[in-house]
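Entry 12.
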Amino acid sequence: MKLIYLFKWRNSGGENCPAVYDTDGGDLVIQGYNLAGDETDQLRNRADDESGVRIPYELAEQIADMVNARRA
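Predicted 3D structure (tokens):
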């Protein structure tokens, strides 16, 4: 899978995460903050090859805006 960088969270200062990537397979990849072990344990029906990341609501809004713009 090839990752194609799209954008970072406006408040990241241009460094580190969170960030959003497109893929050559038609999915999005989110680079975010790792969950602590006890937080990961709270994910429902998590398979061994799955994980969770934490992102700010504002980044989710940026993602929604991008998706809506692409659909227009």
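Annotation: The mean pLDDT is 90. The beta strands are 3-8, 19-23, 28-31, 33-34, 53-54.
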